[in-house]
Design brief:
This protein is 24% helix and 21% strand. It contains eight helices and 17 strands. The chain has a six-stranded mixed β-sheet with strand order 1-6-7-8-3-13. The chain has a six-stranded mixed β-sheet with strand order 9-17-14-12-10-11. α5 crosses α8. The relative contact order is 0.18.
């Protein structure tokens, strides 16, 4: 094992600045974005380092240091120190890249390095914690290489992280970058006093009222990562079945496949935990770039949590899913109003500012009973950073532990016995944690509901180990 450092190529896109002011929506200090891309070959370290230096010149915040303000009203900043990014190289003789290679979400994601989020959020003055780390693992028996990248959430959400990885991949191949450059100019502020906010629920529960860290075993009961996968056709079959009942809605609304899937997952959580209040709301994470305040190519974070109105619980499976899906869609339609987005964003970011100042984490895993937290990146092309091995690259993702925190993603291609890759484009992989003693029960519920909703074939439950 060896570690070297790669520095941003000069001048960077922020040349001439000493620091970058973080808006409140970037204060996801207690979380990381962590991925690993596995290619079916070795990687040229010199070419990789050159591509990384070029990429860091466009994303220099990755090589900076977080600065805590002296008072709550002052801005947090990234000091543009142009520090080196640690790149660790490991040679492994393992027989497989992970213990569960058919599951794209891994907890922990051992292919990527760790960032000390607790030291980061405990910062006084200028932190000495790296905001990005990289681990390259060369699997000598398999002829594969993993490129694991971990970034603090204060400098990158999934959108920014994916663009960073795609630029790194394209520069490694000697190509020009296909994405627009990130936008670093100051962002406008929203107002919580806008009249259109009056009828809206509080869009983000107060994380300062929650214990931290959110993955403390004394707070969260023992749980296991639960994964199921549906084909594109199965995903569509559920949607078609539920929308046949749309005449039951109190007002017409066109439901998406994701709306319906969220309703199904909410219903399954309720069935699996009958002693708790039924799930009637969803905290939906959306990308607000280009919607009201943030530029469409804004750097760092564009996430915003939006809470739906309560959906009535009914005994009918179809009607219950339909009612839940309707509330999801109505909330998203409301967010087409720029003023509403501004109000939501102002409320959310003020909460994040207060939490960061008090050294509290975003306690996503402790969301109120009766609510699920959904962060869907189903439409993200995670396989586009392929480093020249299009169609033959796998990716893996991390997931924070916590009850009722649901993630939807596009699955990896299927690796056939002869070593070839079969695309699963259009399929969906759903991931969340369940109490360890409820895994089999949840599997039965999902399978039973799928049959009731007219799904052909069996729902796939990837193995936790192989």
């Amino acid at each position: 094992m060896a570690t070297h450092f790669v520095f941003p190529r000069q001048p960077t896109i922020l040349a001439g600045r000493d620091d970058f002011e973080l808006s409140h929506n970037n204060l996801f200090i207690s979380a990381n974005v962590c991925t690993a891309h596995v290619i079916p070959d070795d990687i040229d370290i010199m070419r990789f380092d050159d591509a990384l230096a070029r990429t860091l010149s466009v994303y220099p915040l990755c090589a900076g240091r977080l600065v805590r303000p002296d008072t709550i009203d002052q801005p947090w900043k990234i000091r543009l120190t142009n520090s080196g990014i640690p790149v660790q190289i490991i040679d492994s003789d393992a027989d497989q890249v992970t213990s569960a290679p058919d599951r794209l979400v891994q907890t922990p994601l051992t292919l990527s390095p760790s960032i000390d989020i607790f030291a980061l959020i405990d910062t006084e003055g200028t932190s000495d914690v790296d905001l990005m780390k990289i681990t390259i693992t060369r699997f000598t028996k398999l002829g594969r290489t993993s490129i694991g990248v971990n970034a603090s959430h204060c400098i990158a959400d999934s959108t920014t992280h994916l663009k960073f990885m795609r630029m790194l991949s394209q520069y490694y191949q000697g190509l020009d970058c296909s994405d627009p450059l990130p936008y670093y100019e100051p962002q406008a502020s929203g107002s919580t006093d806008d009249p259109s906010m009056a009828h809206l629920p509080q869009p983000l529960y107060d994380p300062t009222a929650r214990p931290f860290p959110w993955d403390d075993p004394s707070i969260c009961p023992p749980s296991s990562l639960f994964t199921f996968r549906m084909t594109k056709d199965q995903y569509e079959e559920i949607h078609q079945h539920i929308t046949e009942f749309s005449d039951m809605l109190d007002e017409p609304v066109r439901l998406s496949r994701l709306d319906v899937l969220i309703g199904l997952i909410a219903r399954a959580h309720t069935a699996c935990d009958p002693k708790s209040p039924p799930i009637t709301k969803v905290m939906h994470m959306i990308n607000q770039r280009g919607m009201g305040i943030l530029h469409k190519d804004s750097a760092c974070n564009g996430l915003m949590g939006c809470l739906t109105q309560s959906a009535p619980y009914t005994e009918s499976l179809e009607h219950g899913i339909l009612a839940f899906a309707q509330q999801v869609r109505k909330t998203l339609l409301t967010l087409q109003d720029t003023n509403v987005v501004r109000g939501y964003a102002a409320t959310v970011t003020n909460v994040q500012r207060d939490a960061a100042w008090r050294k509290k984490g975003q306690a996503f895993g402790l969301i109120d009973r009766g609510t699920i937290f959904v962060n869907s990146t189903y439409k993200f092309d995670y396989l586009s950073p392929h480093f020249g091995y299009e169609g033959r690259t796998l990716y893996y993702y991390s997931h924070p532990p916590g009850a009722r925190f649901v993630k939807m993603l596009p699955p990896n291609p299927r690796v056939l016995p002869d070593g070839t890759f079969q695309s699963r484009k259009g399929d969906v992989e759903v991931v969340f944690f369940v109490p360890t003693d409820k895994e089999d029960e949840m599997k039965g519920i999902i399978s039973r509901y799928a049959k009731t909703l007219g799904v052909s074939g069996e729902i796939e439950f990837p193995a936790a180990s192989s």
